[in-house]
Amino acid sequence: MKLEDNLSGGTTFVSISIPSGWACTTPQVGAAGLISCNAVSLASGATATFTVVLNIGCAVSNASVINNTATVRSATPDPALANNASTAGVSVSNTPPKVTAAVATASPWPPDSSLINVGLSATTSDGACPAPAVSSVQVWGDEDDQTPTSGSEVFSPDAKDFGLGTLRLRAERVDSLDGRVYLIVVRATDTGGATGFGTATVVVPVNASPSASSSVAAQAASAKAYAEANNGNPPPGYFVIGDGPTIGNKQ
User: Fold this and answer.
1) CA angle centred on 147, ends 146 and 150, rounded to 5°
2) Taking the chain, what is the end-to-end CA distance rounded to the nearest angstrom?
């Protein structure tokens, strides 16, 4: 009696458990190839159970189905050839990579309309797979890029040089409001196409008082929590930052 299982594409061999009386040859651990098992005989009506453990490659996309087919054959005449092959399908669950974002300057002060490098950094991980590179940096805010207003000097856009270590945000806010929140969303996509994200915030209080700092910090925490629960999307009423017109000399 012979059993063969040619491993499906996107998988590699880890281990096999075999029943008594059988002998198997397998690919090396971490390799693809053919599993071939033999037994001297198998009694009529008897069963043999094999447990094969495979590793699914990092580049296999989420929700794809891997079909694995095993076949058996006998050296003696087999009256029922139609049941000599069986296929099992496994749906792949590719967990998105983990992204952790942080800034070195979380509250630029004073609000003198300067563009400040906030020291954006991020780490990524993807389980046993290689850590993916950051694929995008987005900035949202509860105040939009400024537009010209009568009687006041305006600088725009309020975010530039999107990237790790280079992102600059403008140290300004509308002083008649309750302070400004910048929400930064950093994304990374792994080789299987799954995308993860991390968030960080930068705030500009309406003034230098402890109560103003506490108020805007609470707003930032709320915005961060919303984004974390909604796939990195900002709360309602937030604007894309950095797409405004180029205005003023502080660029």
Assistant:
1) 120
2) 77
What residue ranges do the domains of the chain occupy?
Answer: 2-91, 98-240
> What does the pLDDT look like over 168-188, one tens digit per residue?
999 999 888 899 999 999 999
Distance CA 108, CA 105 (A): 6
Please state, in angstroms and rounded to a whole number, the distance separating the CA atoms of residues 232 and 239: 14
SS3 state at 83: helix
> Which residues have C-beta within 8 Å of that of residue 234, sequence separation ≥ 6?
140, 183, 185, 223, 226, 227
Report the distance separating Cα 211 and Cα 124, nearest Å. Answer: 35
CATH number, domain 98-240, options 1.20.58, 1.10.12, 1.10.3470, 2.60.40: 2.60.40
Residues contacting residue 215 through CB under 8 Å, at least 6 positions apart: 178, 179, 205, 206
Closest CA to 55 of 33, 31, 89: 31
For residue range 3-22, what is the model confidence (pLDDT) as tens digits?
999 998 889 999 999 999 99
